[in-house]
Amino acid sequence: MKSKLFLFFTVVLLASQSSALTPEIHVEGKKELTVYNREGEAVHSIPLEPKDLQAKTEEASPAIERTSQALVVDGEGNVLDKISLEKNIRDDAFHTAAIGARVATVAIAADEEFRSANSNWTSTAATLVEEMDDAFNRDHNFDLDIKLYISWSSQGSSPEQLLDDLRKDWASKYNYDFLIGFSNDSHILSVGGIAYVYSSNPSTMAVSLVNGTQSYSGIWHAGQHELSHNFGAGHHSSSDYTKCIMNYHYAYTVDYWDSTHGSIIARNKSWFGKAY
C-alpha cells in the first residue's frame, strides 16, 4: 500500500493516496469536509454561512480594476457570446495603486441550477468574482481577470464529487489560472464551498467551487476563502480565534488574512498569472 498522508486539525484524518474519497469529519457541530483526491491533493471545504448572517443584505459594489472581454461557451465549448466587463475605478493615483501588479486569468463555470436561479448569470458571477478579488488587490497586489464563462452541467452526489466533476470536465481544457465554479445543485448545500489545496503550482487551472444559494455576502466570502486554498492556505484550528478569513469563526465576517496565511499567499502567488 502506498504511504499515507496526514492532515491535522482538532482531529487526525488518515487517507491513503490510492484510496477512494474518505469519510466526512465533523468539528464543533459544523460540517467540515477534508478529503484527498486520487492524486493526493487535499480538498478542504467551508461550513455553510451562519443562519444569523443569511438575511444580511449587501449592495454589490466591487472594484473592477480593468476593462476586459470574455467568451461565453456552452457545455461542449462552443462559443455563444462575447461579454465586456468595464473598469469602474478612477484613473488617479489613489485608485490605480489598488490595481494588482500581478494579474491572473479566470474561467467561471456555472451549473444549470445556478444559471436557472440567476437570469443574467454571467453578470452575477462576474460581480461575485470581482468582489472576491478586492482583498487580493488590496493586500497582495493580485488581480483576477475574467476570460471565460462556462455553462457547466454538474454531476455528483456530494460536494467533493461536484468539485471533482468540475475539475475533470474543464480544468485541462483552457490555459487560464483559476477555474471558479458556482453551483446551486442540491448536493452542494451541505457546505459553503470546497476547493483543492495545492502544495505546488498546479499543472491545470486551480479549481474551487462555491455554493451559490447563500446570501451575496456569503457567496463572495466563501469564494475568497476557497480561492485562498488554491494558494496552499489551510484552516485555523477550531480552538483558534485569530481573526482571518481562513478561520471558520470569522470566514463570513472578515475579508483579510492573518500574517501566517497572508504570507502563504504572498509566497505562492507567483504560481499564477503574470507581473505587469
Automatic annotation (TrEMBL):
Gene3D superfamilies (alphabetical): Collagenase (Catalytic Domain) (3.40.390.10)
Signal peptide residues on this chain, from the entry's feature table: 1-20
A Gene Ontology molecular function term of the record: metallopeptidase activity
Keyword Coiled coil appears in the UniProt entry: no
Cross-referenced InterPro entries: MetalloPept_cat_dom_sf
Record key words, sorted: Signal
Pfam families: Reprolysin_5
Identification of the protein by name: Metallo-peptidase family M84
Species whose genome carries this gene: Caldibacillus debilis GB1
Taxonomic lineage from the root: Bacteria, Bacillati, Bacillota, Bacilli, Bacillales
